[in-house]
Amino acid sequence: MDVHLNCWNETDELKCVVVCGPSEIDVPDQQTADDVQWEKPVSQDKARENHQVMVSVMEQEGVKVIDYSDYLSSKDNMIHKQLINRVFVRDLGCVFGNKLLPGEAGTSMRRPEYVMSHLLFNKWFDSSTFPIEANDSVQALEYGDVLVLNKDAVFINTGLRTSMTSIQKMKEEIFNAGFSEIGVIDLPRRGDTMHLDMNGNVVGKNLFLAKSYMRFFPVQMVDEHGEHYEMMEQFLNRHGFKVIWTADVKPDVRDTVANLNFLNLNPETLLISSKVNKKIFSHHSVLKKKKLIEVDVTELEKGGGGIRCMTLPFERQP
Q: From which residue to which does the signal peptide run (predicted)?
């Protein structure tokens, strides 16, 4: 695979991203949706239409889009195309600097897609770039819980799908990739707080948009010298980010996954869901200047994730 892995933050210009088209199996009714922990029933025909539009928009913006399922063997694809969560590729791995680290599924239902994608990535990259064995002793680490803030710091949630034990197992790999500090927050274990990127997101080089309840949570700082605690805003301020709390935006803007689960295409441009309440970007002098590219991913969002969940950046360039 002719790709130069390079991600040191969430906002540099996106050059290459990995996706996966939706499953072939509908989620036919609300009872089934509840049983598989989705929000609503889903027509995969509609989901595929949504997904293709999202991919086309990224390509129009100059992004190389790789659907990794196109590279799976026919044997692997027999089961893979039936995995309803496969569209949420963000959790499978994360590029830290120039290294791709493998995740580990926090639920057994998702384990097959992790195994198959990792074996594929292992063919694409050498062991120094993608150490496939790095997650061998990891119990649960889904990268929707990870935000790469800058060349120094990484922000991780340990919650419903990621364990503190797993972060401790993976921390040396993250430090070896060039980062010096990991901030760990422990958010409530609920469906609407499943991953960090459902609760906060980097929006531009120096801004962090977050649900207001997060101001009350301490962050455990982990570096090569030890551990200590800071409050979340203190941690982010120290790394150059001003925090914008959603309750301070507009009192009538309800916190939703769509409002926060957007993708930075470059420092000036966001790829957002058509369900975003744009008031969230209208009150701040910097946010007002953002170019917002809107796509309808309504059918895909019924699975409980958003645009960021459905995209795995491989390369960003300043």
A: none
Show the tokens assigned to 216: 């009350």
Q: Is the pTM of this model over 0.85?
A: yes
What is the overall mean pLDDT for the chain?
95
> Look-up: residue for tokens 């540099």?
12
Tokens 């295409």 belong to 265
At which residue do the structure tokens 């499943």 appear? 194
pLDDT for 36-53, tens place per residue?
999 999 999 999 999 999
Residue 135 and residue 96: Cα distance in Å, rounded? 15
Q: Which domains does the chain have, with CATH numbers?
A: 13-317 (3.75.10.10)
Under a CB-based contact definition with an 8 Å cutoff, are residues 161 and 142 in contact?
yes
256 pLDDT band, cuts 50/70/90, is confident
Cβ 153 vs Cβ 182: under 8 Å: yes
Q: How many CB atoms lie within 10 A of CB 125?
A: 17
| Other Cβ atoms within 10 Å of 252 Cβ, number | 7
Neighbours of 150 (CB within 10 A): 18
